[in-house]
Structure formats: C-alpha cells, structure tokens
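For homework, think about our next protein:
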Amino acid sequence: MNKRILAKWISLVCLIGALSIIPQLTQAQDDLMNMLQDATEDSTEINYTTATFKTTRIVTGHSIELPAAGVLQFLIGHRFGRLNAGPYEFFGLDQATMRLGFEYGVLDRLTVGVGRSTFEKTFDGFGKYKLLRQSTGGRKMPVSLVYFTSVALNSLRWAEPERENFFSSRLSYTHQLLLARKINDGLSLQLTPTYVHHNLVPTTLDKNDIYAMGAGFRQKITKSITINGEYFYLLPDQVVTKEVFNSASLGIDIETGGHVFQLHVSNSRAMIEKMFITETTGDITNGDIHFGFNISRVFTLKRKDPAEKKKW
C-alpha cells in the first residue's frame, strides 16, 4: 500500500476517534460542574447542633438549652434532707426543700424565668441569652455559648429587726457564661465560669464578690436515658466565717413524652445559683448527701409559622 494512502487512513481513523470522545468529554465537564455546584450549595447550608442536653438543667445548674419561642416550661425541683440523718428522719425523707419555677421562651435565643424556693423563702428571676450555637457547614462554630444572669431575694424575717435594715441587703446577683460542646451523639460537656455578688455578707472578712468555675457532662445511655454530672469549684478564701464545700451532683435523666424526670444525689440542698454555689455546707466524705428530683413539663403557648425560617 502506498505510504501516502496509509497516512490518510490513519488520519481518518484518528479524526473519527477524536470526534467520538468529544461527547464524553462534554458529559464529563458537565458532571464536574454539577459536582462543584453541589459542593458550593452544601458549603452554604448551616447544620445546627441540637439536644446538647435533655433539658434546661444539667442537674441543679443551668445548661445551654432554652425553651423554644412561645414555649412555657414548668419546673419542680425537690431535695430531701441528708441521707446520714438516720432512721429518725427516715434518712432525710422527713425533710424537704422545694422550688417551683416557670421559664418562657421569648425568642429562640432568649428565655426569662421566675421561681420561688422554700430555702430561705427565696424568690428568683433570671434571663438566658444564646450568643453562639454549635454548627457545621456554611457556618462552623465548635461550641455553644449562653449568657445567664439572675437575681435572688431572701424574704426571711430580719435576724436583727431592731437595727436599720435595707431592702437591698436581701438581694444577690449571679452572672454566668455557659460554654458547651456536643462531642458526639452520646457525650456533651459544659464549662460554667461564675460570678456571684451578695449585697450583704455576715462579716467584713467575707467577700461580697465570689468567683467559681463549674463543669458538667451528659452521657447518653439509651434514647430516653442519660447520666448527668456537675461540679462547682469555689475559689479559696472567699467565704471565711462558715465552712462551705464545693457543690457536686450526679443524676439520671429520663424522658417520657413531654416530661423530663431527673433523679439525682448532691451535697447541696438549695437549687438557686447563689446558694448551691456559695453556701453548700454538706461534706460528701461525711455522708452529707441529699436525694432529689426535678420534673419539667412544657406547654406550647404560641405556635410558629411553618414558613418562618430560624435565623442566627
């Protein structure tokens, strides 16, 4: 065969082959563009972390959880006396401290609440605002951050009514930052730096401003049961005239429909921040342990418009 004719046949075959793969290259380019577009869309979608804790309390202290906007939560907190009180006090069951409280979601990020405790006949009010929310995707945030502030009013009769007493002396204030991360589906951790101010203290040796650091965890056992724990470390040399101990608590959360039932043990009897953080007198090593429970029930007072989009 003539070399010139052979070269023409080879060129024709190459041309036909090239033309045959053009559609495949075009399809591959379209697939690549679609993949890039999907990746761009996925990167802009924000996936917020939910259910870091089961309810608004870890045990006694607040968690980062808030009721949704328009939701009212009714909370009953109960603590019995010390287990080492013996059979005469039925191991603490003859004694009890109780708190009734209401918490309302003004916004998805803002909650207000009020309560009344039998311990020192104390009224309390608080606010919680979620500053940051753990998320992935288009907005990566490794933690959730909530600011908590409260005021407590001691309504006991004055111990010394003959002296000049001021209403402001009944007040104490608490400020906390709740910093939490849901590590995985089962484990959540929280740190709670705390500042408490008492307008009135027993003596000039005691400090009006008290600082503490709290830590808590939640470990999921089943879909409806978790183990929770918390500990508040009180910085030394702040309360001098009486012996106080760091608050430690361990409990189990059981979710049943619209209720969350919390069973726990703690060396703290009170259930208000300024009390259980700065006034815990129970020594765990001596068996000063209180059994207690929390019951919470939520009521939806204002339903959301399904078309409404949550923005952060």
Remarks:
- Confidence is low (pLDDT under 50) at residues 5-26.
- Helices lie at 3-44, 273-276.
- Residues 203 and 273 are 21 Å apart (CA to CA).
